[in-house]
């Protein structure tokens, strides 16, 4: 049975400052609708794995297949389009563009994609902001929002193009426990109600416990 | 180009208004100075070309006689003997400087479609005698109608009318400075003496002012026939032909053609005024060097600002790339910012340049007898403004390109991981 995300025998080396194998033979399969938490110590290679899955780091051996498409051998522009269409990202630090309003931030990937007219994506963005309780902040400059609010907007932005896969890198790593709870609830809601496939790297064991599956990585290998 | 990229570029520019304004002002100032300098310098060049052409025809055809001293008739005499003939200090023989078949050549030149006026001339040195005053100078015997077309005399007449030369026997049209020196008034009789000894009396029928002291103080116009009579020559005797062209840029080619065709010397105005032309060329050079320097400085400013902007926006660039913006989008976002700065700067620079040029053109020039400027000479030509616009946009695009390329090539993973 094939999943929405499959990796086969992934190997990854760092050459600076000296040669070092970060990932050893990582084979992973994530089913559609699954909420997977990648856990492990610092330097275990979990973030490296996430960035390989993000298609932004293409320097690896083995294979990655997302939504039936092989990542290797594509040009940077093709990969950019691929990310735009099918992937959504949530980072540890909110990473909204501070000069834009919350709504504009959410709109950017959809405008880049250009699949729907502006009026339609605007309506969808406001609806999605509503789902995370942020519609009243839509026209605020994102630089003026609190950390928790920014992360909620960032999650909305990740979802605006209806991605097949959402990748999250320590989504609660920079938030207090109350905001962490809010973000976790949003992820669970997405997974359960919308059947959204999510792969999240996390240190937060409470966050990991609420995932469908926990994948633990140590020294570049999947240990459980 | 997608609208998102333009929107991001605009938002970036508007979110740091002060920096954007300073970058724009750099371009504005550079373009304005370029326009002011080129308008002024070209104005000076134009004025100098105009004055040159007020005293030199586009093409001047004349008989340039040189005596050949290498052969002597003594050689003919001693031809039979085996002697070496050496003549010390031979004197030039008497030559006639006139253009033979002048009427035929005139007609032929007039047929040329590029030619608008052909003016035959016979010139001689004279002493102007009026009362006890005797002044050295020269007179040009001309067909005043043709000569007017050549030098636009109609606009340079101070008193009287040029055409009166045709109707008055022995009329004379005098340089204004000369008339002033002689204190001769309209209708006065002036006696002219040639170096050959003959004298003749002329009646003052008008004065002209070319604007160059060296001419206005010594030159007069009389009819061609008067000079021919004064020199005891026949009615076909002329020494010079002045030619005006529709477009005087073609003078060198036309002059070369005439030299070949008629066998007389033909000088174009550029050759005659080589020194003044060199001055124009140097002023042009100076304008471009100074303007370019200003623009390069503005360009460095933009390069600096774009580099700083991009250094501060590494995270934003990484996140845009993660969301599927291509390298090209990033390039456009930042290049557009430079080009927008360049466009606004160039347009405001054109306006400021026009304003400054206009003000300079209203500044009175210190009063001077030799030069007839009332204000600083400034030209207003659209082509300078087009140049300014193109320069402004080109410089800013070039300055913005390296930082923008750097941003486009940046590896997002390195930024996101090290956050």
Oligomer: heterodimer
Order of strands, widest sheet of chain B: 2-3-8-5-7-6
Give the end-to-end Cα distance of chain B, rounded to a whole number of Å: 30 Å
Please give the radius of gyration of chain B in angstroms: 33 Å
Cα gyration radius of chain A (Å): 17 Å
- The average pLDDT value of chain A, as a whole number, equals 81
Helical residue percent of chain A? 25-40%
- Count of DSSP-assigned helices of chain B: 16
Question: Which terms summarize this structure?
Answer:
heterodimer; A: 224 residues; alpha/beta; 6-stranded mixed β-sheet; 4-stranded antiparallel β-sheet; 25% strand; B: 419 residues; alpha+beta; 16 helices; 16% strand
Q: Could you walk me through the main structural features you see in this protein, from its secondary elements to its overall organization?
A:
The complex is a heterodimer of chains A (224) and B (419). Helices cover 36% and strands 25% of the residues of chain A. Chain A is built from seven helices and ten strands. In chain A, a hairpin with a 2-residue loop joins strand 9 (213-218) and strand 10. The relative contact order of chain A is 0.20. With 419 residues, chain B is of the alpha+beta class. In chain B, strands 2-3-8-5-7-6 form a six-stranded mixed β-barrel, surrounded by four helices. In chain B, helix 1 (3-15) crosses helix 14 (327-361), helix 12 (274-312) packs parallel to helix 15 and helix 14 packs antiparallel against helix 15 (382-409). The longest helix of chain B has 39 residues, at 17-55. The model of chain B has no long low-confidence stretch (mean pLDDT 85). Chains A and B meet through helix 2 and helix 3 of A and helix 1, helix 13, helix 14 and helix 16 of B.
